[in-house]
Each structure stands twice: as structure tokens, then as C-alpha cells.
Amino acid sequence: MKTFAISLLTVWAAFSACAQNKQKPAPVTKIETEKSMQTNEGLATATFGAGCFWCVEAIFQDLKGVESVASGYSGGQVKNPTYREVCNGTTGHAEVLQIKYDPAVIPFENLVKVFFTTHDPTTLNRQGADAGTQYRSAIFYHDEAQKTVAERMKKEFAPTLWDDPIVTEISPFTEFYKAEDYHQNYFKDNPNEGYCRIVINPKVQKFRKLYADWLKE
């Protein structure tokens, strides 16, 4: 999937899957746990798996109240996984985003709305041409309040956007392993790369139109 020489067929398959939404409008260096995340006073943490983390990182970075977004791996059993290991589908990890946000500016519910709007939560272990458990739709909740919101939004909000059953996994957060440096800020650092222009940019532009009032200036 993520090579710099992507076939037109693969790109078109990924882009077509993104269009199904009915809504118009270097090595891993550290582990972040619940304890370490509590050091950012006033900020909360959300952890989402929505397929390729390149595709959604740029979306959440644009939201008011989001202080930082890191691409990484979560939900599996292997410690300190590499990207290659995660892509092999043998670690149990999903590609995820670890989002630090100010709940006084953007509540968790709004983050979940964006989550369900900007990826396909109806395809099990798949987003477009990307197949495997590492691309599953998932919300890893950090407390009972997030769990309650996630379950309600999965039941009440997501079905208003999608015809097929919602298969998003809702599980307790355990550990987050930050991905290699070249995965961070991928869309912003590589705007002219083929996958970014043909697959990611249309998703970002659609999101910006739908949620214009929620964007950073």
C-alpha cells in the first residue's frame, strides 16, 4: 500500500471506497500509557483506528481544540512493534491516531462524529484497497465516559451516514506505540506524493467543507 510507486488500480480502489460515504455535506521510541497521558493538564486523549493513519492524521490536525496528533499502533499484543511487523498483520495492532485535545473546545463526541464521517466503519478489517486487521475501524476508549459516548454514537449517529452495519470495534485502551518518524505529518510533508494527491487530498477537502466551522484558522 504505502510505497512511492502506487499503481493506478490500487489508488482508484482506495479512492472509490472513500467515496461510498453518503454524507455530502526510525524506530519506535516510547510507549505512552494512561499515567503518562495525565501529565498534560487540561487535555484529554482519544485513540482511533480508521485504516491508514496517513489518511486521517491530516483531518484531525485541522480541528480546533486538537493540540497534537501522533500516528502509531495500538490494540495488539506485541511490544514495540515496527511498521513492517504491523503490516504483516501478526501483531494484533491497528494503525491508530493518538489525539491530544482540549475537551473545553472540542468534546469527545465531536471527535467521534469526525471519525465516523471520514472513514468507512462498515468494512471489516478493510479500508478501500487496504486489507488486514491493522486497518480495522476501532475506538480505544480511555475511560467509561468515552466508552459510553462511543457506543451511543456507533448505535445512533453512524447509521445515519452508512447503509451497512457498523463494525467499529470499541475496546479499552492499553498502550500506544508511536510510529516511525517518517509516518508523522505524512500528508503535510509529502503533499505532492501520488497517494497524497489522489487519495488523501480529496478526503481532506471533503472534510473541510463538511466541518468548516470546526477548523483552525
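Above is the first protein from milestone M3; the second protein from the same milestone is given next.
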Amino acid sequence: MDAFEQLVSEILWQEGYWVRTSVKVELTKEEKRAIGRPSAPRWELDLVGYCARDNVLQVVECKSYLDSSGVHAAAFVGGNTAQANRYKLFTDDALRDVVFGRLQQQFVAMGACRENPVIRLALACGKIRNANDRMQLETHFVDKGWVLWDEAWLRERLSRMAAGGYENQVSAVVAKLLLRK
């Protein structure tokens, strides 16, 4: 797990989610053929959070992009295939349906969630390229029923951590050091 995934994981934990990182989805041979990847290894999800209160499985793709140009809207809405390959769950409907179907079966079978959870897809990113890309992404994500967690979302959650009681987590300690007055 990388540092950005750990940060998002700890934020979700603070918000009441049980969180697993690097979740392997065990696709069957038939499912692999259905998505056009017959020799693919197990599909890996960055984070899966479960909120028992709402019976929601939150699948989170994490992209920090802190020292890069950031997330480009063209990867999602403009047909830029080189960029889109980084976000397969967002850009390939068949893949998403198969992976989410198998994820639900796996988690229910192992007792990690209740029957028939709602599965939501989220992108957590540390940087979006520019204001125009942000606007396009926000509109596209709302239209698709996805969740976009950007820099503002991260800052707001870290500010909450800084204001809260002591937690022995790297994210909470750093938030307190940098954000408390």
C-alpha cells in the first residue's frame, strides 16, 4: 500500500468505514473471458471500505498525482485512451460490472458485509489538472453516480482530524502538527 492509499484509508476509518487495502477480486475464467482478459491475474482494488450502517461497499481508486499535472478530465469524458487506461473501472462498464459483482459475492460469502450491499465507486485524488478539468469531472461523476474526493475533500477531513482527539495514526499526527494553530 502506498502512502496516499493509507491516508485515504485512515480518513475512511475515521468516518466509520471498515477498510481493506489492496483487495484482490477472484474472477472466474468465464468472468475473465466476459471482460476480454482471459489470462488476467486477480483484479486488485486500491481500497474497499464498508459502512455497515448503510450497507455500502465503497470502492476507491487512489491517485495522488501531487507532483504531476494532476487528473485530466479527458481520461473520463474526452476519450483520451492513454489516460483512460489508468482508470479502467471508470471507463469500462463491462469490467466494472463483473468486478463489482464478484466483489459483492466474495464479501458476502466471507461475512465482510451483509447481503445486497450498494457498491459505490470513488476516485480519491491529490490534484486535478485545472479548474476546467475539475468542473468537467464533477459534472461527469455526478451524472455517473460516482464520488470524487479531491484536494478540498482531503484538506477538510485532515482538518477534522487535527481538531479531534489524539489518534495514534500517522495521518492524524501530521494533521495536528501542520494544521493546529
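Note on the second protein: The two ends are 31 Å apart (CA to CA).
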